[in-house]
Amino acid sequence: MDAVKKVVIPVAGWGTRSLPASKNIPKEMLPIYNKPVIQYVVEEAQRSGIEDVIFVTNRDKSVIEDHFDYNLQLEGVLERAGKLDKLKLIREVAEMVNIMSVRQKKQLGLGHAVLCARDLVGNSPFAIMVGDDLMFGGVPGIKQLMDVAVAENMSVVGVMEVPADKVDKYGIIDGDEISPGVYRVNNLVEKPERSKAPSRLAIVGRYVLKPEIFDFLKQVKPGHGGEIQLTDALQGMATSQGMLAVRMSGMRFDAGDWAEYLTANIYFGLQEESLRYELLDKLKNFVQFK
Ligand code: G1P
Q: Which of 1, 118, 194, 207 has CA 20 to 30 A from 155's CA?
């Protein structure tokens, strides 16, 4: 498989899990420490060698594209005030990747969102990153999949083991481990009932796919929740041309889950030398550390 240079990041969801914070701000723009959630995702893409980011948006999400563009007025203010470190910070965000976007005019599901990006993706292998899933530590998340996809010339989905009581929140795979942490995918099922899950290996919002996925997406009927599910198209593709799953390493935060969102904030606060001790000190006032 050729090197992967494009990523599709669907950002058209309502973000109901993040209400009321996301009432008028896209959930992808909520900050974790000093950056919006979406910036961590785009940084992971950039560190993995991705050059083009395709956002699948809706009418309320243009602020996401703006975040990755220059803000000349603000740059002028910072320059005149001599705040050159801040100037550098905001310019760097605009220079990370090329940004493209396409509207998902009806919210018919994740599979439908990806299908909207078809013309912008063209006929090359591409990545998909779900904007709520943040991955940290070691080799950048999507790079872990790209390495296997390119070496094996196969489509690859990223998985992690989740507790048995969480399998109904994810796409779950049934696979055979063919080398440590790499599985041949036999079946995939979107949000199975707990008693029917084929395993605890959950798809974690990272995919590297061949462009034929669009042919499968065009054919899938509404599935779980009445939506066009990416997982259902993946099933067709796995059956007809094979697919691998890679058990991803590193930490994952689901930014749409409040406990994980808040943990991520504290985690990144603690990484910052100038904040660490004050933050720990304040936390000690109301947390009993063992
Ligand atoms: C989507 C996919 C699901 C996957 C999950 C990862 O679900 O449909 O297969 O496990 O992302 O975050 P969503 O969270 O959009 O309901």
A: 194
109 close to ligand 1 (CB < 6 Angstrom): no
Q: Which atom of ligand 1 is nearest to the CA of 224?
A: 8
Per-domain residue ranges of the chain: 6-256
Ligand 1, atom 15, residue with closest C-alpha: 110
Kindly report the number of other CB atoms within 10 A of residue 239's CB atom.
Answer: 14
What is the pTM assigned to this prediction? 0.95
With the C-alpha atoms ordered 143, 100, 67, 93, is the resulting torsion angle positive or negative?
positive
Query: How many residues in total does the chain contain?
Result: 290
Cβ contacts of residue 67 below 8 Å, gap of 6+? 29, 36, 38, 39, 93
Tell me which architecture the domain covering 6-256 has in CATH. Answer: Alpha-Beta Complex (3.90)
Per run of 10 residues, the mean pLDDT along the chain (length 290 residues) is: 95 91 94 96 97 95 95 96 96 96 95 98 97 92 97 97 95 96 97 95 97 97 95 97 97 94 95 94 81
